[in-house]
């Protein structure tokens, strides 16, 4: 197996606890649930996160604050239908130089 040093890979993915029309949950609650679930899937703690990528109503700084983390890298790019790909590219680019180790990409709404 090849060494994964300076390589980007997806190690966890998840959705919020509930799906559909959820008037009892805010967009932020959906972000936080899906992030917590993805961290559990990856075997990480939320405090391990040092990069935040998101777009929409909540900035990456606001999500980081709600999570209680201080990311070394944030990206709030909004580019429409290819958003997930843009964030994957940005995350891979920032990981390759050792800027960040554990990043999240979240989209709610």
Spatial arrangement of strands, main beta sheet:
2-1-3
Helix content: 25-40%
Give the uncertain stretches in residue-range form: none
Radius of gyration over alpha carbons?
14 Å
Written account of the structure:
With 109 residues, the protein is of the alpha/beta class. The chain has one domain: Peroxisomal Thiolase, Chain A, domain 1. The chain is 35% helix and 10% strand. The chain has three helices and three strands, in the order αβαβαβ. It has helices at 27-42, 60-67, 83-96, and strands at 51-54, 73-75, 103-106. It has a three-stranded parallel beta sheet, with helices on both faces.
Structural key phrases:
Peroxisomal Thiolase, Chain A, domain 1; 3-stranded parallel β-sheet; 3 helices
């Amino acid at each position: 197996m090849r060494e994964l040093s300076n390589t980007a890979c997806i190690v966890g993915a998840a959705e919020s606890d509930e799906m559909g029309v959820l008037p009892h949950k805010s967009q932020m609650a959906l972000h936080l649930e899906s992030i917590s679930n993805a961290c559990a899937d990856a075997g990480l703690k939320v405090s391990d996160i040092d990069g935040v990528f998101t777009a929409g109503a909540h900035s990456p700084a606001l999500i980081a604050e709600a999570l209680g983390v201080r990311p070394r890298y944030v990206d709030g790019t909004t580019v429409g239908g290819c958003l997930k790909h843009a964030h994957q590219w940005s995350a891979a680019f920032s990981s390759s130089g050792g800027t960040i180790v554990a990043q999240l990409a979240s989209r709610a709404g």
